[in-house]
Amino acid sequence: MAAVVAMGTTLAACSSSKSEERKYAVPKSLCGIAVESEQLSLFLPPGEKISTQKTSPSGGTTRCTITVDGKVAVIASRIWWGKGNGVGVIDVAGVHAKVEPGQVTDDEKYFYSGTGAVGKTEGCTDSAHPGQDLFTVIQVFASDRDDESGMKRLIFNYNKAVEQSDECPHDEGASQ
Q1: How many structural domains is the chain composed of?
Q2: Residue 9 domain-assigned?
Q3: Cα–Cα–Cα angle for 62, 66, 69, nearest 5°?
Q4: Domain that holds residue 97
Q5: Which residues contact 131 (CB under 8 A, 6 or more apart)?
Q6: What whole-number distance in Å separates Cα of residue 53 and Cα of residue 73?
Q7: Distance in angstroms (rounded) separating the CA atoms of residues 130 and 152
Q8: With contact defined as beta carbons under 8 Å apart, do 122 and 107 qualify?
C-alpha cells in the first residue's frame, strides 16, 4: 500500500511540475494583435523567460517571433500574397515550415495542422499591394506542442483579430 501511495505522489508531482516550469506570463498579443493567452499557451514550452520581436522583412510581410529561453517557439506572420491563378491557403501553407500536412476548412479560408496554420483575411486591401490578399500564418517550432484543434481555434481568432486591426487596411477612398 505504501508503494501505491508513493507512486501516486510521484505521478502527481510530475504532472504538476510541467505547469510550474513555465515561469513567464503568456502574452495576450502577437506583436500588437490580440490573442487568447490560453490558446497561445498550448504552443509555448516551459521556461524562464519569454520575448517577442516584430520584424518586417521584404514584400510587406510582418513577422512576430516568440522566443522562450532564447529558442524560437512560435512565429506569427502577416503576408501579402498574389490573388492571381487561384492562390489560396494551401499555396501559402506549402512554403512555410511546420504547417503541412493539414486540413482545409470547407470555405477554404483556413488551413491548419497541429503545428501550423494559414488564414486568408477578408476586406484587407492596400494600394502598396495591389492584386494581393493578406494571409496570416502561425508556425510552432517548440517541440512536443502539436494540437490540431487548438491550432484551428488560434488561427481563426488571430485571423479575425488581424481583420479588425490597423494591420488590415481598407483603401476605399482613404488616403495613405
Answers
A1: 1
A2: no
A3: 150
A4: 24-163
A5: 82, 83, 84
A6: 12
A7: 29
A8: no
Three-state SS letters, 41-86: HCCCCCECCEEEEEECCHHHCEEEEEEECCEEEEEEEEEEEECHHH
- For 147, the grid coordinates are 494540437
Q: How far is Cα 102 from Cα 117, in angstroms, rounded to an integer?
A: 8
Backbone angles phi and psi of 91, in degrees to 5: -65, -45
Of 174 and 54, the one with more pLDDT: 54
Contact 49, 73 (CB under 8 A): no
Q: Is residue 12 in some structural domain?
A: no
The answer to whether 61 and 126 have CB atoms below 8 angstroms apart is: no
The 10s digit of each residue's pLDDT in 120-167 is 999 998 888 888 899 999 999 999 999 999 999 999 999 999 999 988
pTM: 0.83
Residue 157 forms part of a structural domain? yes
DSSP-derived 3-state class of residue 26: coil
Instruction: Determine, yes or no, domain membership for 127.
Output: yes
Tell me how crowded residue 48 is: count the other CB atoms within 10 A of its CB. 11
Amino acid at 155: I
